[in-house]
UniProtKB/TrEMBL annotation:
<dbReference type="InterPro" id="IPR016162">
    <property type="entry name" value="Ald_DH_N"/>
</dbReference>
<dbReference type="InterPro" id="IPR029510">
    <property type="entry name" value="Ald_DH_CS_GLU"/>
</dbReference>
<dbReference type="Pfam" id="PF00171">
    <property type="entry name" value="Aldedh"/>
</dbReference>
<dbReference type="GO" id="GO:0006081">
    <property type="term" value="P:aldehyde metabolic process"/>
</dbReference>
<dbReference type="InterPro" id="IPR016161">
    <property type="entry name" value="Ald_DH/histidinol_DH"/>
</dbReference>
<dbReference type="InterPro" id="IPR016163">
    <property type="entry name" value="Ald_DH_C"/>
</dbReference>
<dbReference type="InterPro" id="IPR012394">
    <property type="entry name" value="Aldehyde_DH_NAD(P)"/>
</dbReference>
<protein>
    <recommendedName>
        <fullName>Aldehyde dehydrogenase</fullName>
    </recommendedName>
</protein>
<feature type="active site">
    <location>
        <position position="280"/>
    </location>
</feature>
<dbReference type="GO" id="GO:0016620">
    <property type="term" value="F:oxidoreductase activity, acting on the aldehyde or oxo group of donors, NAD or NADP as acceptor"/>
</dbReference>
<keyword id="KW-0560">Oxidoreductase</keyword>
<dbReference type="InterPro" id="IPR015590">
    <property type="entry name" value="Aldehyde_DH_dom"/>
</dbReference>
<feature type="active site">
    <location>
        <position position="246"/>
    </location>
</feature>
<comment type="similarity">
    <text>Belongs to the aldehyde dehydrogenase family.</text>
</comment>
<feature type="domain" description="Aldehyde dehydrogenase">
    <location>
        <begin position="15"/>
        <end position="470"/>
    </location>
</feature>
Length: 523
């Protein structure tokens, strides 16, 4: 009998994630996949750990988070290298868009959480004169966080940390596309010395995610595609438990006739090619008004030419596509666009050599029926749409299935604000883009197919808490006006009701006090 055959079958056949470098295709390692049993064990451990974690004070929870912050601070550069190796993104991006979220959010919540989580006393209501009302928030219990590969660290850590601050325990399932970052986060949680079961990381693909949705969790916080979001929501509906869905986008950028064109062109290129365009809040539809179209386009081309594409260690602006399958999506969208009359003004092809590199691509004459306009491309492609004016741009921007973020570019801030208010999206910036998601005070989330629910800001704590209403009566009245007996009080009740409906409050109250007297008398 071979050594292999003497092993328990589940060990011999344990499936693993094989990870290859997006930069050069080299084999970066194999990672064990958590089974459905592993997932259940992690959730059970989180359930056991919950009461003690919930009962810690905010300060005590923050002590653990401060340790985590110190670890990220001391080893940040090496962590950035791991994330860049996993995703192919420039080292600067790993520092800026992944790791910097840790101090920003911990600092913000250290200040905000005590205020947001304080029991709130409400103003007294006329017909509840002896009662004091409060609203407070209670942690939900065990939270499942399921995250994607495009910002594998930030999009896992921020929901996990928010849920922890709010007093929950968590099981995190990062994307199978970026297992190195999954292992990195497991290491960070271990080193922070969090009590057993408070955070567990289960690695694996959709099957592991589905097992987590089926397990005994109290909420699912999901970031990913619309297609998977539907499955997650269906699984949550079986129980039912709440879900938050942070899904795809096709964000609009509107360049008005009075925009600062230099600033807008540099922003469009950063917002369109950052993270190789693999960003839910990437500029995926760039509307430019006729009056400035030609001048803006020249500036755009100059900026795109300046993009340095390369491996993370070569000081690149843009790396390869992280997920190989995206090469196919990008090529398909470009082919469809060409066939329907678009012009590929720059780029448009995979780059020579190893790795998943694609040329920064500028597409002009884009129209509403093209795939590149309708569906998320998630690649280094900037589609430009020429419009008569900003009203046309706004109408087109809103006539779309997605609504995550967007931006408006104008020197007239009042008009910018008015356009931003009318944009159908979860966030909208004026003369800025992308950075609003990094502002920890601003709620983030989508409308329409981009999902629902909000995190970041105080909402980022409430997302993981149940609101609880408390009403207190100090017992000064012996009885309540509405209690039994009913028989002597019908007329008084009618008087209360009719005057209340007619807006005659003083009369309504006098009938109300009459009811109280009659209740006290009890024949
Ligand atoms: P995806 O939907 O393929 O996968 C997301 C996660 O879900 C992964 O961890 C995956 O393993 C898991 N999963 C797959 N099947 C599952 C199932 N049946 N049950 C439970 N979990 C399952 O998405 P992706 O390709 O990793 O990420 C790209 C998508 O995410 C894009 O559409 C992008 O726009 C979106 N995204 C949205 C935001 C946002 O904040 N709104 C941020 C980043 C990415």
């Amino acid at each position: 009998m071979s050594a292999q055959a003497t092993q328990a079958p589940h060990l011999a056949e344990a499936p693993r994630i094989e990870k290859f470098s997006p930069v050069d295709g080299s084999h970066l390692g194999d990672f064990p996949i958590s089974s459905a049993d592993d997932v259940e064990r992690a959730v059970a451990a989180a359930r056991t750990a919950f009461p003690a974690w919930r009962d810690l004070s905010l300060n005590q929870r923050f002590e653990y988070l401060e340790r985590l912050r110190e670890i990220v601070s001391s080893d940040g550069e090496s962590f950035a290298k791991t994330i860049s190796e996993d995703t192919g993104k420039p080292l600067l991006d790993s520092l800026l868009t992944e790791l910097m979220s840790i101090p920003l959010f911990i600092d913000y919540y250290r200040k905000e959480a005590p205020r947001a989580l304080k029991r709130r006393k409400l103003s007294r209501q006329l017909f509840f004169p002896t009662k004091t009302s409060y609203v407070e928030h209670a942690p939900m219990g065990v939270i499942a966080v399921i995250s994607p590969w495009n910002f594998p660290f930030q999009l896992s850590m921020i929901p996990v940390l928010s849920a922890l601050i709010a007093g929950n325990t968590v099981v995190l399932k990062p994307s199978e596309v970026t297992p190195l970052t999954g292992e990195l986060m497991r290491e960070i949680f271990e080193r922070a010395g969090l009590p057993a079961g408070v955070v567990s990381v289960v690695q694996g693909d959709g099957a592991t995610g589905a097992a987590l949705c089926r397990a005994d969790v109290d909420k699912i916080f999901f970031t990913g595609s619309v297609a998977t979001g539907r499955k997650v929501m269906a699984a949550a509906a079986e129980k039912p438990i709440p879900v938050e869905l942070e899904l795809g986008g096709k964000d609009a950028m509107i360049v008005c006739h009075d925009a600062n064109l230099d600033r807008a062109a540099r922003a469009a290129v950063w917002g369109g090619f950052l993270n190789c365009g693999q960003m839910c809040i990437s500029v995926e539809r760039l509307f430019v008004v006729e009056a400035v179209y030609d001048a803006f386009l020249e500036k755009l081309k100059t900026e795109i030419e300046r993009i340095r594409v390369g491996a993370p260690d070569e000081g690149s602006d843009m790396g390869p596509l992280t997920f190989g399958a995206q090469m196919g999506t990008v090529a398909r969208h470009l082919q469809d666009a060409r066939e329907r009359g678009a012009t590929i003004a720059m780029g448009g092809r995979p780059m020579e050599g190893p790795g998943q590199f694609f040329e920064p691509t500028l597409v002009l004459d884009v129209t509403e029926e093209m795939e590149i306009y309708r569906d998320e491309t998630f690649g280094p492609v900037l589609p430009v749409i020429r419009v008569a004016d900003e009203e046309e741009a706004l109408r087109m921007a809103n006539n779309h299935q997605y609504g995550l973020t967007g931006s408006v570019w104008t020197r007239d801030v009042s008009r910018g604000l008015a356009l931003a208010s009318r944009m159908e999206s979860g966030q909208c910036s004026v003369n800025d883009l992308v950075l609003s998601v990094g502002n920890p005070a601003l709620p983030f989330g989508g409308v329409k197919r981009s999902g629902f629910g909000r995190y970041h800001g105080p909402e980022g704590l409430y997302a993981f808490m149940n609101q609880k209403a408390i009403m207190v009566d100090r017992g000064l009245l012996e009885v309540e006006p509405f209690w039994y007996p009913y028989a002597p009080k019908y007329e008084a009740m009618l008087g209360t009701f009719r005057n209340l409906m007619g807006g005659k409050m003083v009369r309504a109250l006098s009938h109300f006090y009459e009811m109280h007297k009659l209740t006290k008398k009890r024949p």
